[in-house]
Amino acid sequence: MRIQSLMAATALMVFAAPVLAQTTPPPHFPADLSPAGVRAADDHLALEEVEGAEAMAFVRAENERSLAALTGDRRYETFRAEAFDILSSTTRIPGPSFLGDGIGNFWQDAANPKGLWRRTTLDSYRTDAPEWETLIDLDALSRAEGRDWVWKGARCLAPDETRCLISLSEGGKDAVVVREFNTRTREFVEGGFILPEGKHRLEWFDIDTLLVATDFGPGTLTESGYPFIVKGLKRGQTLAEGVEIYRGDISDGGYGVSPSVFRDGAGAVQAVIINRPLDTFRSETWRIVGGTVVKLNLPERVAVHGVQNGNLIFGIDEAWSRFGGKPEPEGSLMSVPLDVLGRPEAGPPSPDSNPEVVFTPTARQSVQDVAVLDDGLVVGVSDNVVGTLRRFAFDARTHRWSSSGVEVPANSAVGIGDVSRGSGRIFVSTQGFLTPPTLSLLAAGADALTPLKAAPAMFDASTHVVEQFEATSTDGTKVPYFVVRPINAPMDGSTPTILFGYGGFQVSFPPAYKPELGKLWLENGGAYVVANIRGGGEFGPAWHQAALREHRQRAFDDFASVARDLEQRGVTSPRRLGIYGRSNGGVLTSVSITQHPELYNAAVIESPLIDMLRYPDLPAGASWIGEYGDPRIPGDAAFISQYSAYQRLRPDADYPRLYITTNTRDDRVHPGHARKFAARLGDQGHDHLYYEETSGGHSNDADPVANARRWARHYVYLSQQLMD
Fold first, then answer.
1. With contact defined as beta carbons under 8 Å apart, do 272 and 205 qualify?
2. 66 near 58, Cβ under 8 Å?
3. Are strands 201-206 and 229-234 parallel, antiparallel or unpaired?
4. 170-210: per-residue pLDDT in tens?
């Protein structure tokens, strides 16, 4: 009888609606969901002014209070020092990229917190003590120029890669300044290409020509603040003097029009492709042929990976039938002649043998990475959220693509790194929750990896075990999740546990080694859970699209179902369960708290989107309309308002003490989201902590000093809430 009662209670719990969704509207919920009505109900609009006087006064007051609670904790200095030792450790694997006939690397440590761009030979890189040659000392450059430069990468012209476009950000913003650099002279090129600060999309065409999409002046950016015009820019020309080669429209969505120049292993241009986004995920694909712009007959949901022997290599994120042929399922990897894609009169492929299909994943597989080489493809395939690696080659005799496996460690995340098309070599990384990364080289034609470097263990993993389970969501969907827990943890709900989720933008979260989490959390007896909820890319486009727009609630339901499943298994309990999410994960965590405060006792809500009824009005929010919908449209506002956490906060709810944190210089997710949420929590009398860093941007990549403080604050808060 007790078993039957428990089963009935469990069924009610799993299929219950959000507990607060059925109550009357909370205070400050707009009576009118029009943009004007939403503004009228918002008493914290002043906090949207990034550096406004009222906003900065709020930040200073909140920071002072929060720092006292976090940095004053007895654990803070230990956590900070441990995190810094990890982030600045000289035993880390130097992340490599192919640079001409050598290896490039950007490196930060205690002596070089802003970092060094440097190079060595592959033979030297293989050794335990490579001989590095410094190309750019970013600390010295910042001191000399009086600027807070943050490295944002180098784009070098193949095949010799001696001329590079260096992107530098002031304080970590997405917007960058671009300067031309000569790796032979190790100097910025006098009179070379220079682009002012902006969110540029650029490619080398030849040594004297760039393809640039950027801010060309008034009326040249979309609502999201991204470019829609591509120009050819000759050496010595100003942006105004560049010649327009493609124009989208000011109403375009997504992240802006972008050019791609695809080359073969010898550096010869194979094709120039222009991507014109219509919204976050739909786009048009154009080809520049001479002085002509040709629209390619591709589906709108497509991911272009490269060009090989005149064929475009691309993945389809929707079912697609070329010219009335047999439909290919979403998630398939394709190879179609460019000339065919540019001719609408071309007929369908042969029904008996279709050489255009490279790979079709199963329902629990997805294509994660694609490396295009002159003689084939190397593809990273996720299989039930575990990494595999495959080679594909076209067999002219059978007129089909053949596949062979590349041996990789079991139960690992597999990542394809930089690719040398000229030599056919690829860097590949493998890692697991408790297994440090190994960097390997996949040689041309090889079916096995050659290990290059193995990172040392940064924490004691012997005390923990990794398990994979499934929870049942509200609609019956099976949702996988990983648990990393102490081996000897009693299954009585007493283990302090962090539940991580993202659930958006087709981003996958396979097993990954997180040394700061291992040192500051797992070694202290905690558990860690990754929920592979809908909205992500773990099972391909369908898994992502299942939680788009009006179906967003599915992602929140999936996350709650994992929390309940953890409790039912005895892994943890609401008293000991905290959640963490950043960026789109901030939507997830803020909604999870407002819909199900009874499930959690902590939430780190970092760099978050939260005010979903005003997000398109906060730069660069309009670029994400394809993911969430447009709250300025009545029908979309109706379903978005059902979950938008800023409007759903209630003074009578029993929320745990929350920790909200963001960055003043974040020009991707506006800091107003986090500020307003914290302010309203305070207005309603809810205990909370709010901290806003003043440099670092959305990527938190400024330097290891700031990042060590960041992780220490996170884990002090989580320890206070879940371990004390």
1. yes
2. no
3. unpaired
4. 999 999 999 999 999 999 999 999 999 999 999 999 999 99
